[in-house]
Design brief:
254 residues; mainly alpha; globular; binds zinc ion
Length: 254
């Protein structure tokens, strides 16, 4: 396959994945997933105003939005611009990933990046992390491990996350939520031991700094509950992109 075909293919698949993730985020945050997960996943796309089923041609990422000029084809009510924007964003991320990483791992990295961003968005809105998205990170981790080998390092990454996230629960009540723990363990497995240390440090430091700032500014006390997934996601993406360089810096200075 030549490069232009690969880029075009990556954009179409990436944008379609973006469409799925955006719909999932909307349905999850609206409580539809909690009521009936199977229904939320299989329910055909429909207009939120008139509830008409959307024709397949209008479901084509980005193009569908342009064809209907950003309105429902039936009731003419406006469709959120976030739909085509999230499709466009994921399409572009897919193209960048394919151009920057070996083809064998690019699809897995793309899915892991975009899923981790979706987890951060959902946790910020609902303070919950969907198990389905954590499973996607875990499956991506299993595929990466199968491609790269080094099974022990990946298991060590998962165990490290488990220990760090379970400890606060054992010492005192509170600490991290169950969703955070599952997400962190899946992430640790994906990253492997060294990169997990990088992700963990970034997540804990950025989360602590934000937590203190947020608590002092918003609640004037130090007891404030903030979603932790956005900081884990930040650590995850930085660790995947620059983990090796950061680890080399450690060795250089220490
Ligand atoms: Zn409508």
């Amino acid at each position: 396959m030549n490069d232009t075909l690969i880029v075009a293919f990556a954009f179409i698949i990436g944008a379609s994945w973006g469409s799925f993730l955006y719909t999932f985020i909307i349905r999850y945050t609206n409580g539809m997933y909690t009521k009936n997960p199977c229904h939320a996943l299989t329910y055909p796309s429909h207009c939120p105003h008139c509830h008409e089923k959307i024709k397949p041609v209008y479901l084509i990422p980005v193009i569908g939005y342009c064809l209907t000029k950003g309105c429902c084809a039936y009731c003419k009510k406006p469709v959120s611009l976030l739909y085509p924007l999230s499709e466009l964003f994921c399409g572009i991320v897919a193209v960048i990933t394919v151009l920057q990483f070996p083809l064998a791992i690019a699809p897995v990295l793309f899915v892991a990046f975009t899923t981790s961003v979706s987890i951060a968005i959902i946790d910020t809105i609902t303070m919950e992390i969907p198990d389905l998205l954590v499973c996607i990170i875990l499956i991506a981790g299993i595929i990466i491990t199968a491609i790269e080998g080094e099974v022990v390092s990946h298991i060590e990454g998962a165990v490290l996350m488990l220990v760090v996230f379970i400890l606060p629960l054992l010492i005192k009540k509170g600490g991290f939520g169950g969703g955070d723990i599952k997400y962190a363990v899946a992430m640790g497995f994906f990253l492997g031991f060294s990169e997990t240390i990088v992700a963990l440090e970034i997540a804990l430091v950025s989360g602590a700094l934000f937590g203190i700032l947020f608590a002092v500014i918003k609640t004037k006390t130090l007891k404030a509950k903030i979603p932790f997934a956005p900081f884990l996601t930040l650590g995850f993406i930085v660790a995947v992109l620059y983990g090796r360089e950061i680890i080399l810096l450690y060795y250089y200075y220490i």
